[in-house]
Amino acid sequence: MTQEGNDMGLELKGLKKILGGRVIIDDLHLSVAPGEMISLLGPSGCGKTTTLRMIAGFLAVDAGQIFVAGEDVTALGPDKRPSAMVFQNYALWPHMSVSKNVAYPLKIKGLSKPEIAEKVDAALALVNLLHHKDSRPGQISGGEQQRVALARALVQEPNILLLDEPLSNLDAKLREKVREDIRQLQRRLGITTVIVTHDQEEALSISDRVAVMNNGRIEQFSTPHELYNAPATEYVATFIGSLNRFEGDLVSGLIQPGAHVTGIRPEDLTLSMQAFEGSHPGVVELIIPRGHFYEVVVKRSDATFRIFASENIPAVGANVHVGIKKSLRYLNGKLVA
Amino acid sequence: MAKFFKSINLSRIGINLFIALLAVFILGPLVWLGVHAFAADWHYPNLYPSGLTMRWWSKVFLDSALATAIKNSLIISPIVVIISMFICLPAAYAAGRMNFFGRKAFMITLFSANSFPKIGLFAAIATLYYALNLMGTFVGVVIIQLLGTIIYMTWIPAAAFAAVPKNLEEAARDAGASKFTVFRTITLRLAMPGILVAIVMSFLASFDEAQGTYLVGAPAIFTMPTEMYSLVQNYPIQVAAVFSILLAIPSVLLLGLARKHIMGGQLAEGFQLK
Amino acid sequence: MISLRRKKNKEGSLTSQGGGPSLLGLGLSLPPLLIVLVFVGLPILIGLTFSLGFTTGPNRVIAIIGQQIHKKNHWWGTLSAYNDVIHDSRFLGDLGLTIFVTVLSTTLVLLLALSIALYQRLIGGRKAAVLVTLSIVPLFVPVVISAWAIHTFYGGDGFMKTFFTHFGVDFPTLTSTPSAIVIGTVWTSLPFAILMISSGLQAIPDALIESAKDCGASVFRVIANILVPLAKTPIIIAASFTSIGILGSFTIPLFLGPNQPTMLGVEISNFFGAYNRPQQSLVMAFIVFAIASGIAVLYVRSNIKSARESGRL
Prior knowledge:
The structure holds three protein chains of three kinds.
Chain A: E1 10-19, E2 22-32, E3 37-41, H1 48-56, E4 63-68, E5 71-72, E6 83-86, H2 98-109, H3 113-126, H4 142-154, E7 160-164, H5 172-189, E8 192-197, H6 200-206, E9 209-214, E10 217-222, H7 224-229, H8 234-239, E11 244-251, E12 254-264, E13 269-272, E14 280-289, E15 294-300, E16 304-309, E17 319-324, E18 328-331, E19 334-335
Parallel strand pairs in A: 3-8, 3-9, 6-7, 7-8
Antiparallel strand pairs in A: 1-2, 1-4, 4-5, 9-10, 11-12, 12-18, 13-17, 14-15, 14-17, 15-16, 18-19
Helix pairs in contact in A: 2-3, 2-4, 3-4
Chain B: H1 2-8, H2 12-36, H3 55-62, H4 64-97, H5 103-115, H6 118-131, H7 138-162, H8 166-174, H9 179-208, H10 211-217, H11 224-234, H12 237-263, H13 266-270
Helix pairs in contact in B: 2-12, 3-12, 4-7, 4-9, 4-11, 5-7, 6-10, 7-9, 7-10, 8-9, 9-12, 11-12
Chain C: H1 5-15, H2 22-28, H3 30-51, H4 60-65, H5 80-86, H6 89-122, H7 125-136, H8 143-153, H9 159-165, H10 178-202, H11 206-214, H12 219-230, H13 232-247, H14 251-256, H15 264-272, H16 278-309
């Protein structure tokens, strides 16, 4: 449903936003390829929603430019921008039926009645909601409301689809299914998509690339794989996944005082009852069942480690050996190769 | 969003002009009348009075008929409000919290009673009043004024009671409070803003009621508003102005107290029939 | 969907009661109901029989005192008094004026209230607060004072005339004209309409407006397609209460209106008192009541419809 031939997706250049005297967003740059699905990920207050609202046009930028498909849309209001948004609480109009909700943007564009009916049906078919055409938003479930909101956005054939915490109002079971549905739909339509979320699992599993935000800046913008395995900053490393963080350097398998910060993922540690090459002895202090694996806390002479293990779990107090497979090194918060 | 609309909406000049016009429309008559209370002589077409005086104030306070009217008003209205609370608040609780048979009919009955033209009702009520010997009596005036308070004292608190979240009461019950304690410390407290608005609106309805009070009370009992009727005909405008200021004081005081809740939607909420 | 928060509370409290203590509720609601039935319902009923020519029983005294009393000539009464009234050119003039004032004033009040409330909802800020506060002021002022203040303000030696004379403009004397009644009724009716409509508009979540903007809707469309339909019930409540209030108004037309024709509220009082024709007076009251009931039906229907749509019924 996207327009053909846009060779550029979304480009944010040096965005700045000040709200209530506080700098919320500062010098933010972001470049999204056409058809790409990206997430803005960060804790609440990091500026991700502010960024999304600037892209949508609900907030004016204090500096910088926004390009959609190569066109500068910075000065345009939300009604004139080629983006469509799915709101966090869906924002369906309770006084209109499902099909009226979806038809509304087309009505505004001044499309003919048969044309509208055709497109609305197509959009509702896309989200499997044709059978709820005449229902009111209040009469359908949360997941269904979410799909109506999606249909209302897609029917506009936007260049950019914006999703504000799209899964936050759904229960855990439904969330995974809807996440897959959105991903498949996005792939099929090839529509450039920006998702705002605070849920890292959601961001990593759905996006082509993830922008991790902190204090109004993008800390890192890369693929989920890179984000996890080579977090560019200490902040990203601690925010994504779990991390053993030590002030000091790793010297011949031991944490020693030093200028760097060393980070080790719990799954990058090897736990064994016998000594092996590069391992050092320690004592099990605590075992926490975490579902399909265990978190084992081991105290060594140099430091205490959290280790993820799924088999051969020792008992508390047991003497074990811990080896380090892989570590990350940071200087002043930045990754050192 | 505000900024977005601002850029394409009414220009600044337009809105300022609108504010000025509304201010003249609303405040103009009040200020004009208020100034008269202190004016010695004022002849058309002078923009200013010939001098300022407090003469009219002493005239009002020394006039025994006017003083009696003030006293009557200050006695009758509180009595009306208290009776109204006793009669209506339990009903309001029932209408707000219980789904009893005929609940909607009850609310609609009160509403339709309110939509019969007051002056017609007062004409019709004379027959009944003569039969019950209520004409020209204190009780008769109280009842007439009570009628105008019922819709406020029932509808607004009903909405306020209905809006008290059930789980807050359950939490209090869970904490060991008896049913009555829960009602007193949780339900009543949370519904208080609505009840306060109802009390203020009822007081004003009673305090301002003129037509019925005149028909039933005159010539035995005069209240401030009914006195106004004769005042504007028999006294210079300045006396009416002084009297108006006196008459407005309780309203302004009371509404000042409840302003936050009235503008906060308690009044509006009360008129949604649910 | 974002439902309006207050409604949710209400829903929770009502449905959780289920069947509830039906008798207790009915019992608690009896006192105000009895008062209304005895002091409103009964007089209206007696008045209705009197207007139909029943001149015995409770109506005996008034039938003796009053003039031009028609006595019933069928078992159900007579329509002679109604006939008198609807063929009275004076009544027809009054009715015309009453309907004219009611329609015009209600329209003006709604337009004014809606534009101020929309300004407050869409733009907000200090100016909006000033506008709303100004509109609420009449609530603080007893009707008798309002009527008298407006009387002096627009009168022959009032401020408007005085002020404009100094600019060489002859401002018309509005007092004792239908215009003054309209001014007075708009003045006194504005606060209630503002409170209703503004609270209705404030309850609409921002996201519902933003999503429409996102779909390309202009300000005008947001107002016409989203805000006004979502605030329909409070708007209709404001319209019905305002028009019913104006329809039966007495003090405002008495102080501000012309002697002839005048609004029916004043004429009902004149016929009852000055002309001593109580039967015709009551007939007029019933005619006003009939019109008011028509408006009331709209109000009740709108409330029930909105309750059904939001799933409360």
